[in-house]
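Batch job 17 of 40 flagged for manual review because the log was empty.
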Amino acid sequence: MDAPEVAHSASIRVADCVFCGSRYIQGGAVAPVITSISPSQSHHAVPMLITGTGLSSTSRVNFGSRSVTPSSVTATSVTCMIPELPAGQYKVSVTTGPLTSNYLLFFYISPPEIEVLNPSAGPLTAASLSIFGQNLTTTRSVTFGDVGDATDIIIQSDTVLVAVAPEHAPFEPGVCTDTVDVVVTTAGGTSVPNGADGQYTYYGAPAVTNMRPSSASVGSTFTITGTCLTGATAVTFTPTAGGPTVQADYVARSPAQISAIVPPHLSQNTYDVRVTTPGGQSLITPAGVFTV
């Protein structure tokens, strides 16, 4: 007759750190388990929600080697503020007493920076421009002050965006420019306005209302009077009957006045004189006809 089997107590060793189903075991004790983090990519000063089990005694939230104190704790959730970190990937875990949970990956994204706009000025109508800066890959929006958001954003690289500035409302009489801060928002936050380098100026369309004299020989100086002549980039003569356009030398005296020189080598003729600014080109009108 076979001897009966005798139950023996066994010494069972649990690995120092093993994940078994919904239990995370460290040194024989059940550690906290995290199942989700939100957001999984962001930047500092944004609240993070961590969900899981066994979290009621959480004393620290770990972002790699950096730890922060949670702002609220329950058995199934923990919230904390994301600390400022170098850009990159981090293992997020929680610590309860001597036990540390499993980890989930978090991507820290540095906030965007605007370095320069090209062009930095344009008309009231929608116009394309390039934005140069840093940390632009996750761009979500580009805002032009109170005017609105840009459209047709193209992310060319981490340092270059192309966008279309929103259309500006018509100016009140006597107003010719409006300068606004351009702000980029990404998964890493919102850029901080940095003065002129990050500003865009809307220009009203120029208009020529008078010229004195309106007839003179080549090389003569004359005065153009008008509105919104600020930022003039060109003064041109074009034969009224058609022909090549010639640029004149000029000096902008004020938003309402430009001194110009009748270009040399012009033949005797009548010409449409037009002024170009970032706001566009003045219309052809009788007030802008000049006789050489």
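Reviewer: the log was empty due to a logging misconfiguration, but the result itself is present. Confidence is low (pLDDT under 50) at residues 1-18. Unflagging and moving on to job 18.
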